[in-house]
Every structure is written in structure tokens, then in C-alpha cells.
Amino acid sequence: MTVFDDGTPAVANLHPDLLVALRRAAAEAARHGVGFVVNGGWRSREYQQRLRGDAVARYGSEEEAARWVATPDTSAHVSGQAVDVGPPAAAAWLSEHGAKYGLCRVYRNEPWHFELRPEAVDGGCPPLYADPSQDPRMQR
């Protein structure tokens, strides 16, 4: 598990149901020799805004930054509803098996980003958005 610069564990302030699902999936993955690291979990509004500003600087515009980083008002990380999982083998395992736990990859361009979708346990994960800018939840 990652600890952020301010000492906050990446799983702090996650929605309790997300944390339970993530722990169950991680335990199953470990039985198959795959280890999980939560590289990103809950984020403060200030940290999310800093990430957004860094993305604007890196990609050159708000529009391009929106493909990679949500605003504090729309980020599932700020609400404790999302995690970023690594290493790549863990993200791949979760992409393949996550629906069993209600954990779904949401964006095609972010293979590490997962959100809790309880309905996926019975119906599978919904289709992927190309990137966050295509997600209607990001249009607020």
C-alpha cells in the first residue's frame, strides 16, 4: 500500500464497500501469485486540484488534461469511490476478475483505475469510456 507525501495511506477515506471489495479481490489475487499495490485512493480536493493543474501544464490545455485527470468536483478519488492499482500485472488481473467483486475498470486509457460497481457482480462491468472526458459524470 502506498503512503502519500503527507503520510496518509492510499486506502484512507475510501468508501467502506470499495475497501471491502478491494481487500477481497487482493486476497484472491495473492492466492494466484499476484500482489496488489494501491497507488492512488482517496484524494483531498487540494491534491486533486494540484494534479489537475499539473496535467494542464503537461498536456497544454484543460481539454487534454480532462482526458487524464478529473476536477476536484468530479473526481471519484475525491469522493473515495476509486482506486489506482498496480503493478501492471495486478491491474490486468483485476481487469479480468474484478467484476466478481464489483470492481470495474472505467477508462480505456487508464488500465490502473477501478471503481466499485456492485451491479457488476451479476451483470459484468459496463463498457469502458475512452477516457474521463467521455464519462458523463465528468460533465458537471
User: Mean pLDDT score, rounded?
Assistant: 92
The biggest sheet amounts to:
4 strands, antiparallel
CATH topology of the domain at 16-44 and 79-139: Muramoyl-pentapeptide Carboxypeptidase, domain 2
Number of strands: 4
CATH architecture of the domain at 16-44 and 79-139, by name, is: 2-Layer Sandwich
CATH C-level name of the domain at 16-44 and 79-139: Alpha Beta
**Which value, in Å, is the CA radius of gyration?**
15 Å
Q: Which sequence of strands runs across the widest sheet?
A: 1-2-4-3
Give the helix proportion (percent range).
25-40%
Low-confidence stretches: 1-6
Give your account of this protein's structure.
This protein is an alpha+beta fold and 140 residues long. It has a domain at 16-44 and 79-139: Muramoyl-pentapeptide Carboxypeptidase, domain 2 (2-Layer Sandwich). It contains 5 helices and 4 strands, in the order H-E-H-H-E-H-E-E-H. The chain has helices spanning 16-31, 45-59, 62-65, 88-97, 120-123; strands at 37-40, 82-86, 103-105, 113-116. Strands 1-2-4-3 form a 4-stranded antiparallel β-sheet. The longest helix has 16 residues, at 16-31. The protein is globular.
